[in-house]
Amino acid sequence: MLGACGAKAPIRTKSEWKMSSATSATRRGRSTVRWSRGTMAPVSAATACVPPGHSRSLPSRAIAPMDLQRSARCALKSEQTASFRALRSPMRSSASVVCGSPLERSRKMRKMPQPLSDSMDPSRGKRLDVGHFGLRDADMPPHEAGAWDPRALFVCPSNPLEIEIGSGKGTFLCQQAAVQPQSNFLGVEWTADFWRSTADRLRRNKLEHVRILLTDASDLFRHRLADCIAQVVHIYFSDPWPKGRHHKRRVVQTDTLSHFHRVLAPGGELRLVTDHAALWQWYERHAEMHASLFERRPFTPPTSARPGETVGTNYERKFTREGRSFNAMTLVRREAAQMQRLQSSPPTWKSFSRHPDPPPL
């Protein structure tokens, strides 16, 4: 290879090529920045390429270029974010010792378990004790033992039993049980976090006539509960399952209404409240279809509800602040004589024109 004057250019080693490229980049006012593994300090490519035993004087603008300042700010922000997450959740305390580049730190943090938000974590970081108030499927007798009567769980089994499907955080159970000690209450919840929080809340309030069960409410009424054991069944702000293919997951169905009628005692009530317009239409159609089983009556707020409230649950108070409206009804169990009289009455043209099962919304 010839030089500029025709003389043969000297052959340079690999380290000399690195030093020359770094020096030319520094003279042009640019500096390539890389991160050293194990530290959070950025290292300039001009200083990193100098081999041991050599020293090179660099211009002042290469010591603190804009790239280095930007990298230092990013490193400081990453450390502050890691410290904040470590303080917020004990599960992520190991994030403060993660080293490497900001990209490596973010990748490692994404693999760590994320804490639940305050709205979905009722414990708020506290240790919960369900005691004997929280029941699971294993606490129920086996299927071979026959139908289960949950009134045997309480000190006074002769008191009326009320069942709430979807207790959530247990607001209605706690406030209604406090003003109605002459009745026994059984809450049914599917979410384990809410079940655990409600059981701990019952334990702290010492409500011995209340229990919370972790199971599927539909299966409980279909296969486990005995006949004529409940005075009231509460279904407040149930999951609407708005998609058409998910309508089969709604609690109120044609078969579940027949099981509600079976489990309720004579004169028992099925109380329904919702804020969802499509679910309310679903309730109305099913109530009209099963008029031989239930008599529809106006809804009366419970004694524990505040002035202006329909029920007083946590969801209702949240939706009230959002400006939503609520719909409610009470379905009273008909007696066998009333059912026979309605079935023996001649059908009307309106009943012939109705579809046997409501179409999905």
Could you walk me through the main structural features you see in this protein, from its secondary elements to its overall organization?
The protein is globular, with a radius of gyration of 34 Å. The termini are far apart. It contains 13 helices and ten strands. Strands 3-6-5-4-7-8-10-9 form an eight-stranded mixed beta sheet, with helices on both faces. A two-stranded antiparallel ribbon has the order 1-2. The longest helix has 23 residues, at 66-88. β1 and β2 (42-44) form a beta hairpin. The protein has 361 residues and is of the alpha/beta class. Residues 25-50, 55-63, 90-99, 107-120 and 347-356 have low confidence and may be disordered. 36% of the residues lie in helices and 15% in strands. It has helices at residues 14-27, 45-48, 60-63, 66-88, 102-111, 171-179, 192-205, 217-224, 254-263, 277-289, 314-321, 336-344, 349-352; strands at 33-35, 42-44, 134-135, 161-165, 184-189, 210-214, 230-236, 264-274, 294-297, 327-333. It has two domains: 26-111, no CATH class; 134-352, 3-Layer(aba) Sandwich (Rossmann fold).
